[in-house]
Amino acid sequence: MAYIRYSPPTPKGTVYATLVDSVRHGAKVEQKYLANLGRVIDRQKGIFTNRERGIFQYSIESGYADVSSTYEESAMRSGKTEKLILDFGDSFILDKYIRSLPFWDALSKVIPSDSDTLMSLLFYRILTDKKAYCYADTWWTGNYASVLFPASHLKSQQVRRRAKIT
User: Fold this and answer.
1) Can you tell me the mean pLDDT for 126-137?
2) What are the start-end ranges of the H helices in the chain?
3) Same domain, 93 and 68
4) Contact 6, 43 (CB under 8 A)
5) Which of the residues 19, 25, 49, 152 could staple to 116 if both were Cys, CB 3.0 to 4.6 A apart?
6) Do 61 and 14 share a structural domain?
7) Is residue 113 in a domain?
């Protein structure tokens, strides 16, 4: 007899469902995986979403069916959204390389209160062809350096004052 098995909720509250068939052989019960129904959108109405079918309705009695557009819109809105879009690779590699050098500790202690600012400016100078520090904050907000050095102060007026750049 087939039934829908629901997973325990993930830490974010997402529940997944699979279609399973259960057959009894004497005292032994054998469970056979039939299909992945995907993420549960509405458990009472049997509405699911997965990559193969998109958003659909499934019940043991009637099988697969299409759903109304209201569920499609709500699923699009409740889906994962991007938190950050960053230029990642160059800063990641440079960070791994600099941290492996023997003078990393000394470099991070040059200006202890503003080491994030110093490191962000160092990355900016190495990774870009721009020499004007007034663009450093714009670069930093779209780069992985903003994750590596979150306490940076790169507003154009603050750069000269904090890092004593001439």
Assistant:
1) 83
2) 69-78, 89-100, 104-108, 115-127, 136-141, 145-148, 156-163
3) no
4) yes
5) 152
6) yes
7) yes
On average, the pLDDT of the chain sits at 83
Q: What is the pLDDT of residue 161?
A: 63
Of the candidates 20, 22, 56, 23, which has an alpha carbon nearest to the alpha carbon of residue 35? 20
Phi, psi of 116 (to 5 degrees): -65, -40
Flag whether 83 is in a domain: no
The position carrying tokens 């350096």 is 145
Asked if 121 and 165 touch (Cβ cutoff 8 Å), the reply is yes
Q: 166 pLDDT band (50/70/90 cuts)?
A: very low
Instruction: Flag whether pLDDT at 15 surpasses 90.
Output: yes
Q: Which domain holds residue 17?
A: 2-78
Does this model's pTM top 0.70? My answer is no
d(CA 141, CA 97): 22
How many domains is the chain partitioned into structurally? 2
Residues 47 and 96 in one domain: no
Place of tokens 């102060």: 153
The domain boundary, picked from 28, 58, 78, lies at 78
DSSP-derived secondary structure letter, 114: G
pLDDT number for residue 51? 86
Which of 56, 78, 100 is the last residue in one of the domains? Answer: 78
